[in-house]
């Protein structure tokens, strides 16, 4: 993960009509290949818009002696203050060994991995406790990650199949202000663009503490970073009891030129993992010496996951400014998860809970962008249509802690959930002003077969129950932009977002009750090759909100809630070889009626990623140093409790000479004893003690200092 100095887009040959947020993601070269036109997901800025200098993402290095080319790729143009693109140079500044490390670079986002290396991360963003994805829309290479009506959590988004070395950039759209944002885009949307860093074959082998072993093999046959195949094998005993895991991932993508202006993209992959989960530690057990900080609770916790996915996309021949993309995708996923967060509080046989979720997803998507003239003014149009059908079989059963056998069936259901959507967005420039107006409609149909409905041996054994529901969500999007200078602008944005319901909660004939969010933002952004900056004040109102405590399976309906806050992010390349990304978000989340704080959200999140590359001519090598710093302020917990402050420092040092590179990664350099998850609820872990409903504090331990050494071979 070596970095090289960057060049501005003008130096790379970017046309003047490139959008302000266009990024150069390229390999540096002495010989430049012919320039590529912008891709179909890049809308040219209207001619009247002042030209802007866009930040450039520095290229990854190639081994000496190779011929390298420059490829310029555009991103969706930023049309709100909080949209940001984080390139490969920023991702390479700090250790990125898994998906959690990748997500932590997103401004204001907290990614917690408190239940083992195979379970989806718990996410916090902009005052929302998004659980495992219910308020953050995640997309990888065009493939949706969030799973609808999941047994464990709404919008369950397991990103552990991602190979960090393949993430070329993150396109972050915080808030719900753009028409392309769909289900679960309540606090924001994160899109990951995939690509291989270097032409040829790359081997990366890692050995680390706690018996960590990891091997990544990447093949990029040509100049296009988007055509690659990669495999990852990883396993570890974990930093404490019940934290071991093993996983295997395959990802491959091909960009194909079919001739006559027609191009295609194929992305496929498979992923499987088996992992253990430590459970929680009661604070009073730790203080009394009955448990250690890194103790596990019960031995059967953990699970297995697999995911298989395929996307086929076609870009139709361009006609003037018009460009059209068609995509079809399919995903097969399954999860078996066992956990016990409460011990013997509910049942003397134990509160062990096993959940399974087997899902299949089929989807179609069409996007069309063009520039038209209305009243002698250029208007950029973006249109989209799509549909997604999810079939799910899910179960939930209670098991005995003594032998793991089941004693109660709680859920056995088959679900079919279909979402059909359409959206439109138009942008009209008027001198230094630009106006954006759009809308989105999502129609949701749900069918449920509940095999356990009416099953009560005291009366009769029913044969299950079928029911269906339907609903439509209408959302408006709007924005105003004023260009103060060629590189500095003010923004005002508004947008309606939504979260689809849990299908099993719907009654026969019910109008599907979406959770609606109304969001607004005022902010500013400055674009530049050396310095990019953005700051905003935001607010989100949720009409009929709830929070779900997944540790005890309790849903609390709160009515109307309000999130407010401020955020700022900066990307800087002040000196040759230096890259920095800094961000901070302060948020507040309250119940409107009582002004009480919502539990678990993160009021303060700050992140700094800084890297430095230094050529060493004496030994014909490049030295790279980098760090990632995370600060999370105290989070409100139930019963007026607060979590501990978290400060983490990760560092890396790498030396590259020709085809060989050696990298040292140290996570949690200060060896801080930090709590990755903190909760307040009642529990009973000693079955001989008296039952009690008195709430107590619990936590899951974060990782101690972990060092690993990686050898890279580039052929």
Automatic annotation (TrEMBL):
Q: Which InterPro entries match?
A: Beta-barrel_TonB, Beta-barrel_TonB_sf, Plug_dom, Plug_dom_sf, TonB-dep_rcpt-like
Instruction: List residues of the TonB-dependent receptor plug domain.
Output: 84-189
The alphabetical list of record keywords is: Cell outer membrane, Membrane, Receptor, TonB box, Transmembrane, Transmembrane beta strand, Transport
> Which interval of the chain is the signal sequence?
none
The Polar residues compositionally biased stretches are: 1-14, 64-83
Please list the residue ranges annotated as the TonB-dependent receptor-like beta-barrel domain.
304-669
UniProt cross-references to SUPFAM superfamilies, sorted A to Z? Porins
- Where does the record place a coiled coil? none
Positions of the UniProt region annotated as Disordered:
1-89
Q: List where Pro residues composition bias occurs.
A: 36-62
Q: Where in the cell is it found?
A: Cell outer membrane
How is the protein disposed in the membrane?
Multi-pass membrane protein
Q: Which Gene3D superfamilies match?
A: TonB-dependent receptor, beta-barrel domain (2.40.170.20), TonB-dependent receptor, plug domain (2.170.130.10)
Q: Which domain of life is it from?
A: Bacteria
Q: Name one Pfam family in it.
A: TonB_dep_Rec_b-barrel
Record-linked PANTHER family: TONB-DEPENDENT OUTER MEMBRANE RECEPTOR (PTHR30069), TONB-DEPENDENT RECEPTOR YNCD-RELATED (PTHR30069:SF28)
UniProt lists the family membership as follows: Belongs to the TonB-dependent receptor family.
Protein name in UniProt = TonB-dependent receptor
Which species is listed as the source? Answer: Corallococcus caeni
Q: What is the lineage of its organism?
A: Bacteria, Pseudomonadati, Myxococcota, Myxococcia, Myxococcales
